[in-house]
Amino acid sequence: MSCPMKILFSSHFFHPSIGGIQEVGRILAGEFTRAGHEVQVVTHTAERDSVEFPFPIHRRPGALELLRLVEWCDVFFHNNISLRTAWPLLLRRRPWVAAHHALITRVDGRIGWQDRLKQRVVRGARNIVVSKALGQHIAAPAVVIGNPYRDDLFRCDPAIVRDRDLVFLGRLVPDKGADLLFQALVQLRERRLLPGLTVVGQGPAESVLRELSRQLGLESQIDFVGQKTGPELTALLNRHRVLVVPSRLQEPFGLVALEGMACGCIPLVANCGGLPDAIGVAGVTFRHEDAEDAARSIEKLLAPDADLRRYKEAAAPHLAKHTAAAVAAQYLRVLEEAAGR
Question: Where are the coiled-coil regions (predicted)?
Fold first, then answer.
């Protein structure tokens, strides 16, 4: 290993906040530490729990504390760019690396002044994007490094019987497209096919989705099980044959596809954004926002004579590129180059 670095790690959201960016941040900060570097995390997430980390976490630091931390570091890493923590670079010049996990827009998709400013300032950073699709939206050159998954948690368990058909894993909001998957089940019912679906997650659209399930006559097929994490989630995924990611949103990557794949599910994803990058050749795509095409793909994957060997054989080498250690090593090469190591 080259000379250890002092890495200031900015992640607007961090544990115990739940989400893909938070999970990737937790993985990378841990791997950087395991590789022998000194890491300090700054985050706007105020909540804390009993989980202990091998690095200090500064939650909502004040201006002077943030300036001191930037002065301390050899390289400043942003796990998604945050203007709230980037401003000290105007006063304390340090090598800067920004990893982009999402489009630079407001939550509703509008482009505000903050987003225009972010697009300007990232030109002064070394940039990383999590998919080729996302790279098209960043106004600066960027290296493509796919997201890591928790290979210490998500894995196949041969002791668990794979006795369920479909699983949806995600926040219950319109952008995630669970309603489109319900429509695909209606299409399949017309062909006298009644696969079961487990919906894993919570969100503001849960009551709407439950009512839609009732209206479509799918209550006997759909099981809403709420939010699951850790070993409980791993065990649940191991019971399913196919994980479906029907996002209406142009997903920057699609970490859930890797998690399902690692647990032995065949991922079936919408052909949009970074989702095809997330599955490589180890899964199947269907046309974006096309319930009929999703239904056709589900029918093929669940057919008694379906030959799924090529997907299962492709999963291991694809997952190997996305282990925590493999992805962190790619990030560290970029950080070392930025720091002149």
Answer: none
